[in-house]
Write a structure and sequence with these properties.
Blueprint lengths: L4 E7 L6 H16 L3 E7 L7 H6 L8 E6 L6 H11 L7 E6 L2 E7 L7 H16 L2
Parallel strand pairs: 1-2, 1-3, 3-5
Antiparallel strand pairs: 4-5
Length: 134
């Protein structure tokens, strides 16, 4: 039996629509490219679904493991303190067990996007777009 993985894309939340649109858009792209995972979103504040509601969205999906991915560029108070507290994740082990549909499911917390060649390529793409539009 292969594991069915869930991905919870996490955002800060904002009164402006942009944050939710980015987190939702990234989640949609992951789901479109990787058909074998179940993707949900959750926000710290100001937007719905909340992170806990995002986790509830895995009910009935059969996931055996969920990875919570902060759609943040770098660590800060939210990624290091607030999100682990909201999700009940140990800051040391970066994981916990939760119940979904009466079964134990591992909830693992990933690193933020950080320094990565893909982020650098995207930044350079934005440079070219800015030059082209002027």
């Amino acid at each position: 039996m292969t594991e069915k993985i869930g991905i919870l894309a996490l955002g800060h939340g904002s009164r402006h629509p942009h944050n939710k649109e980015v987190v939702s858009g990234v989640a949609d792209l992951i789901a479109k490219k990787y058909k074998d995972v179940v993707v949900r979103i959750g926000f710290m504040n100001m937007n719905t679904p909340t992170m806990k509601e995002g986790l509830d969205g895995f009910k009935g999906t059969g996931v055996s493991k969920i990875v919570a991915v902060p759609i943040f560029l770098a660590h800060g108070v939210h990624t290091m303190e607030d999100i682990p507290q909201i999700l009940g994740i140990s800051k040391e082990s970066r994981k916990t067990m939760i119940k979904i549909d009466g079964k134990d499911v591992a909830l693992i917390y990933s690193e933020p996007l950080g320094v990565d060649e893909l982020v650098a390529e995207l930044a350079y793409k934005r440079v070219n777009e800015a030059i082209s539009s002027n």
